[in-house]
């Protein structure tokens, strides 16, 4: 059997294992998925009129729905990968990784299975939250098929980058609780980005916090693709952030996996 065939076979086995775990223990996935849905409904129906006033130009609730949905979709990805950090931490601390090390399987297949499984769950979560958004009035009538494809590619790239970071967090965490806490920035950062209000509407001292982070350019790019607003340099910044985080997470995860004797 060739090395590539061996890797693909073992990676697909690990992917099935992780998807089965997610299906058998859905409570964490549901909890992480409910958070963006609740925030979407809360900000649209409770705070929508007030928040839209900060956008200026006489924007109303319908305009605010269009504005907030791209941010909620990115937040959904950040929330979903928290479960990946917990799952990886459980594998590292419960002895299964030590068992895998004694078996004739491709070493990288364990990480690949976690990453692909998490990306698939993120895509499914985004689709579900997107369906809720459409049900409450979100529309993107001006988006072309190419722009929809680019939006899907961007969200997949973000999911891949955040998943590798979450895997690294799970690798270095001593237990599942610590992994969940370590991954909390992936949920908090979207809250302090341009997800809910424009950066220009924030206090001057706070604007750099919202501007110079990975979620804001990704959200602005997704917003531009779906709503036809200007993207500017945000597209290149979003791709650069994703590639940088993917490389960082991969190197971090691989080094921790090779070093950890558990």
Plain-language structure description:
The protein contains twelve helices and no strands. The chain is mainly alpha-helical and 262 residues long. Helix 4 (61-93) runs antiparallel to helix 8, helix 4 packs antiparallel against helix 9 and helix 7 packs antiparallel against helix 11 (215-227). It has helices at 3-24, 27-46, 48-53, 61-93, 96-101, 108-135, 145-172, 176-182, 185-191, 207-211, 215-227, 234-259.
Write the layout of secondary structure elements.
Elements: H1 3-24, H2 27-46, H3 48-53, H4 61-93, H5 96-101, H6 108-135, H7 145-172, H8 176-182, H9 185-191, H10 207-211, H11 215-227, H12 234-259
Briefly characterize the structure.
The protein is an all-alpha fold and 262 residues long. It has helices at residues 3-24, 27-46, 48-53, 61-93, 96-101, 108-135, 145-172, 176-182, 185-191, 207-211, 215-227, 234-259. Helix 4 (61-93) packs parallel to helix 7 and helix 7 runs antiparallel to helix 11.
Q: What is the tally of beta strands?
A: 0
Distance between the termini: 29 Å
Question: Which strand-content bin applies to the residues?
Answer: under 5%
Order of helices and strands: HHHHHHHHHHHH
Total of helices? 12
Shape, please?
Answer: elongated
Rg over CA atoms: 19 Å
């Amino acid at each position: 059997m060739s090395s590539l065939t061996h890797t693909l076979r073992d990676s697909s086995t690990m992917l099935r294992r992780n998807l089965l775990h997610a299906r058998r223990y859905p409570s964490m996935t549901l909890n992480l998925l409910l958070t963006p849905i609740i925030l979407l409904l809360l900000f649209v129906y409770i705070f929508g009129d007030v928040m839209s006033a900060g956008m200026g130009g006489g924007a109303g609730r319908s305009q605010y729905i269009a504005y907030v949905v791209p941010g909620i979709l990115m937040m959904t990805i950040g929330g979903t990968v928290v479960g990946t950090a917990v799952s990886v931490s459980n594998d590292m601390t419960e002895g299964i990784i030590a068992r895998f090390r004694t078996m004739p399987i491709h070493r990288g297949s364990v990480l690949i299975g976690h990453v692909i499984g998490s990306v698939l769950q993120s895509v499914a979560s985004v689709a579900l939250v997107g369906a809720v958004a459409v049900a409450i009035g979100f529309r993107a009538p001006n988006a072309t098929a190419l722009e929809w494809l680019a939006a899907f590619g961007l969200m997949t790239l973000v999911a891949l980058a955040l998943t590798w970071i979450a895997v690294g967090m799970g690798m270095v965490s001593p237990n599942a609780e610590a992994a969940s806490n370590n991954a909390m920035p992936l949920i908090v950062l979207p809250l302090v980005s341009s997800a809910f209000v424009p950066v220009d509407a924030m206090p001057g001292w706070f604007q750099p916090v919202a501007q110079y982070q990975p979620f804001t350019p990704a959200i602005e790019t997704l917003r531009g693709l779906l709503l036809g607003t200007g993207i500017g340099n945000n597209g290149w910044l979003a791709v650069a952030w994703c590639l940088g985080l993917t490389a960082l997470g991969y190197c971090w995860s691989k080094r921790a996996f090779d070093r950890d004797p558990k």
